[in-house]
User: What shape does this take?
Amino acid sequence: MTHNTEIDEGRVEELMFRTLGYFTGAAVTAGVGLGDRLGLYRALAGAGGPGLTSDELASATATHPRLVREWLDGQAAAGLVRYDAGDDRYALTAEAALVLVEEDSPAFIMGGADICRSNYLDLDRIEAAFRGDGALSWCDHDESLFRGTGRFFRTSWRNFVTTAWIPALDGVQERLTAGGRVADVGCGTGYATVLIAESFPQAEVAGFDFHEPSLELARAHAAETGVAADRLRFVRADALGYQGTYDLITFFDCFHDLGDPVAAARHARRHLTDGGSVLLAEHYALDDRAANHSGNPQAAMAYHESAFLCAPNALSQPVGRALGAQAGESAFREVFEEAGYGHFRRVAETAFNIVFEAKA
Assistant: This one.
């Protein structure tokens, strides 16, 4: 800063309180994660009616009453828990329960707290990537990232994959209803993979991922659902290593993490049946970066997560063409055209995702 620079004191104050707001968000996020882990939200939701005193909540969850009261007051100040000063009770509204407790709710997003937790636990590794060659493999993050990612995106998968996205593809739903084969590439903890197998009981479904701990979680989830093992399998393979031919090949929020996305798209094209489709679900983003900064409410979070997770993972792989989590439609279209696809179109859009179909 030069001495003759005029300082806008109002702007300084605005930026100071904006930054303080982000610090507040980080603190509340940790509180949200703790409330989830300790069962505090679930106990409040189960109490119903007038809610619980802090002592009653502590007793119901076997936690320390003094700390619970501080947590409750923080949650009340954040607008997540309702406080009645008249009888000194705290309650969780039905709306808040849909966001914080009910895992099958279309508003449930609690996995995001674990993703944030992993950012801080991995901060030294992330710093080293920034100071070095930019590389940090997905496999080298804290395990809370893997569970949190699967849990966070499960909400979108449950509400859109088989009810809106697959039906929007060219002839794919009919193929899978009659039988057909599906490859879910970069399947992670397998929520979408299992959902597809459950929704199309005649189809054979395979999930592929290079991260064995995620595959172990996926296999456990599959076992809980009871889908026959001869119809659903999880195999360790990267985006260039899986074999077989498929009527549908899916990439759910993972394609932008690949070091060589063109090679991955080419590999998928070689393993599609005649008339088969690639389903590409990616983070919502606008093509123009400046417009994305101001016009996409998810951009601030997505760009930071991309800097911490997505781009470093791509840079840890051969080629290292790091698309990033906010690549936008034109970047993906360019990749698939370069890979030799004749058709690429947007088929769906939500607040969190844009979804494309690519055909040879």
Summary: The first strand starts at residue 82 and ends at 84.
